[in-house]
Amino acid sequence: MRQGQEPVRAGQDVSVSGPGARATVPVHDTLMADEPLTDEDISVYRQLLEVSPDADEAAAQLGLTADRFAGSVRRLTARQLLRPDGPHRLEALSPGLAAVALTTSSQTRVRELLRRIDTTHRELGPLGPLYERQVRRGLEGGATELLTDGEAVRHRLAELSAQVRHSVLTAHPTMGSPETLRAARELDQDLLDRGVRYRTVVPHTARRQREALHHMTLLNGLGAEVRSAAVIPGRLIILDDDTAVVPTATGGAAVLRDPTVVTFLTVIFDHIWEHARPVGTGGADNEVFEDVELAVLRHLERGRSDDFIARKLGISTRTMRRYLAGLCEKLQVETRFQLGLAAARLGLLSDARPQDDGG
User: Fold this and answer.
1) In the chain, where does DSSP find H-type helix?
2) What is the DSSP string of 195-216?
């Protein structure tokens, strides 16, 4: 590079000539990305560097048309590898200096971006632990609380009941012992005295259990809404639409607070409730026990054992067999197989209410 001469700048036009033609070459930064250097461009650079800076001679020696030679000059000039050096002459410049000139502004931008990244991390970094702590609190609030045994369940239910504000929903596939029912009534009465809306669903068969019927009658008198269904899939307690208590396989219970889970369980309860029959003070009625008989028939149709059916209906195996004997007498048959045929012939199973199917 000669003293006093500046490299070509972006936006400057460079005039070159080739055999029989001249070309004006605009210099643009975008050529760096849009037009990569070709082998032909390298040949032009080598010719001008090693042989002669004369543009016409270089084009002729390389056998390039004016357009092709001008294209190479344009790409080389955009990279500051060439610059005009008099009429029809081009000087080959240092690639190292060209790289420095071309990347200086980019390096400045990179340094500015790194400074901004560092500033952002320093400003926002201290806020991260605050956010994470809050997320952990939310997860802890929605986590499942496991109660390992019956005593722990009763104690926790008493604590949760004391915090209830507006509603309790319960579904019980079986009724507890007289002692359990009496203890439950104390909690229920406290809830009802505080104006909490209390809805509960119990099995139809509870209507023929003296202590259970007494319990339901007392609840009705205290202001609770009590209904019964032929089959209740599982025990469920929902408090204030935000906490659910469900049994575990080990004899304990799980306290759930995840909104999605509680909402889903509430939908299940509403389905059971809508298809259950109100319990009044008059005790049992024929329609209720027809529901129980239909449930027995559906289980028999699926080949379930007496013990399985009794467990699903919340009754003893002996009581279930009494229902079975009553059905055989009512339909005037002697065996289970004949009972199934008679039920199908009469359309009893096709008319069975699907919501009472206990799986």
Assistant:
1) 31-34, 39-50, 55-62, 66-78, 95-124, 127-142, 150-163, 178-193, 210-222, 259-274, 286-301, 306-313, 317-330, 336-345
2) T-EEEEEEEGGGGGSHHHHHHH
Single-letter amino acid, residue 43: S
* Cα 105 → chain centroid: 46
CB 215 within 8 A of CB 177: no
Residue 66 pairs with which residues in a beta bridge?
Answer: none
Sign of the four-CA dihedral 41, 45, 50, 56: positive
Query: Which class for 273: exposed (0-12), middle (13-18), buried (19 or more C-beta within 10 A)?
Result: middle
Cβ count near 175 (within 10 Å): 21
**Contact, 246 vs 260, CB < 8 A?**
no
At position 30, the amino acid (one-letter code) is: T
- Give the β-pairing of 253-256 and 145-147: antiparallel
**What element of type H or E holds 254?**
strand 253-256
Q: Which residues touch 261 (CB under 8 Å, ≥6 apart)?
A: 244
Contact 162, 239 (CB under 8 A): no
Nearest to 357 by CA among 272, 273, 237, 270: 272
Parallel, antiparallel or unpaired: strands 236-239 and 225-229: unpaired
Ramachandran class of 244: left when φ > 0, alpha when ψ lies in -120 to 50, beta otherwise:
beta
- Rounded distance between C-alpha atoms, residue 220 and residue 144, angstroms: 33
> For 312-349, how does the pLDDT look when each residue is reduced to its tens digit (9 = 90+)?
777 778 888 888 888 888 788 888 788 877 777 777 66
The distance in angstroms from the start CA to the end CA of the chain is 92
Q: Is 20 left (phi over 0), alpha (psi -120 to 50) or beta?
A: left
Amino acid at 290: E
Q: How does pLDDT run across 123-135, given as a tens digit for each residue?
A: 888 887 887 777 6
pTM of the complete model beyond 0.85 = no
